[in-house]
Amino acid sequence: MAIKELYSEFCKTPFPRDISENENLADILHDLRMYDDYTAATIDKYLSGVNIDSSELVYDNTIETQLIEFILDANNLKEDVSAAKQYLQYVLRIKEILALIEK
Amino acid sequence: MAWKLGGDGRLHPDPYTWNNIGRYHHTPGPTGTTTDENGNVVDTYQDPITGGEYYKNKVGGYTVPYYSDEDVEGYADGIVISGIWYRLPGKYKDAGVEYIPLYERVFLDAVNSGNLSSLDDMSYWEMIRRTDFPEPIMGMPPPIVPGGVQIKALRTILKSWSKVNWRSVSSAVKYHYSKHVLNQGMRNNLMQYTDDALKFFNTNKHLGKEVMLRDGSMGMKIRLGPNQPGGIFTTDGRIVSFWYY
User: Fold this and answer.
1) CA angle (B12, B151, B48) in 5-degree steps
2) Which of B22, B23, B42, B20 is nearest to B31 (CA)?
């Protein structure tokens, strides 16, 4: 799928809802919001022909790593882990687009 | 709303869908005929507002409202729809007929239908940003279109949002509106969404926590808890993001 189509599909993806009481996960979700806004803006500029530094289009795996650690932490509640998995799915969509651009 | 390219090389609204979103409703059928300035025989209609007669021109078998240079004041640059550049009238001199510029109609229609993608993003937003909006003419009620959207609210949107990393405020608004309203299955229009965000900020700013935005400036995040509204704002209260859940 072309980058533009993939990004268009991504724009139609609802942002995951804030459904957890867990403060740690809430912080990760906030970081995801900021990252989502930043990457979407950067991809939008890229697709519009705006000259941007290629480093801005490199995927940052910080949030993905935090979410995986959260999911694997046996101390976390089942419903929080379920929420974290939704957030992970979302960040992997971003990763997919950036990987396609990097090619 | 459907649009047709008229014989004068300009874009005109489809008179049938036009009637669905505006306050300008003509009688169902023609009330007679007359001859236009070019000698063409054209249908006349009764204007429901003024009670007077007006006429419509037939272009290529398609009936469109007839506008001449004398009918309009200025031009609103143009608009790209489906890759074609159209020049649009600014506003109509005859307030009894219509005083909402056509490009605002395009905008309002897109907002109310939730289909912003039908428009070329930059051209129409930039056009709106650059243009002074006409004030309602004295004695006339403010224009209301389906969804309760008022023309003046357009200004509020553009000055209420921050672009932070985005190439334009309009791109930022469009993205967040899609992510947090349309794609969540909500039907709030853009004005309502913006208004909710501003009210949320004013009510809850004392709960905000300082955050650094991606452009290095300081902002504020407000989170009430799970399944509740929240937002990210600049310190002066412009919206960076706002969500209902």
Assistant:
1) 60
2) B42
Q: Is residue A8 part of a domain?
A: no
Residues B137 and B229 in one domain: no
Residue ending a domain, among B151, B173, B199, is B151
Q: Chain B contacts of A45, Cβ < 8 Å?
A: 166-167
| Interface membership of A82 toward B (CB under 8 Å) | no
Domain count, chain A: 1
Angstrom distance (rounded) from CA B85 to CA B162: 28
Residue B140 pLDDT > 70: no
Number of neighbours of residue A3 by Cβ within 10 angstroms: 15
The whole-angstrom separation of Cα A7 and Cα B140 is: 45
Residue span of the structural domain in which B131 resides: 3-151
Q: How far is B176 from chain A (nearest CA, A)?
A: 8
Place of tokens 């509640």: A77
Residues B38 and B66 in one domain: yes
Q: Average pLDDT for residues A32-43, to the nearest whole number?
A: 95
* DSSP secondary structure string for all residues of B184-207: GT----HHHHHHHHHHHHHHHGGG
B189 contacts chain A (CB < 8 A): no
ipTM metric: 0.94
Q: Best interface-test mutation with B: which of A19, A21, A34 has the largest number of B CBs within 10 A? A: A34
